Amino acid sequence: MLVTSDQNTMPLHFREFLSAGNRSPGVLIAPQGTQVAAVIESILLLWIASNEEEWQDRIVWLPL
């Protein structure tokens, strides 16, 4: 899973990547300025409360 702060170009690139028939474990976007503690808490929550198949080929903005 990719964690990035690039909310301007990553969504478009990710859609193009998927449209080309590729698969991804997912992308998490944490906009710049987001508190690091909130991002870490969200990632831990995802890790504890879900399984990897739920995030495949999805893009999600953090914090949750």
Word description of this protein:
- The radius of gyration is 12 Å and the shape is flat.
- It is 38% helix and 14% strand.
- The chain starts with a strand and ends with a strand.
- The mean pLDDT is 95.
- By secondary structure, it is an alpha/beta fold.
- Strand 2 (27-29), helix 2 (36-49) and strand 3 (59-61) form a beta-alpha-beta unit.
- The chain is built from two helices and three strands, in the order E-H-E-H-E.
- It has a three-stranded parallel β-sheet, with helices on one face.
Short description:
The chain has 64 residues and is α/β, with parallel strands linked by helices. It contains 2 helices and 3 strands; from the N terminus they run βαβαβ.
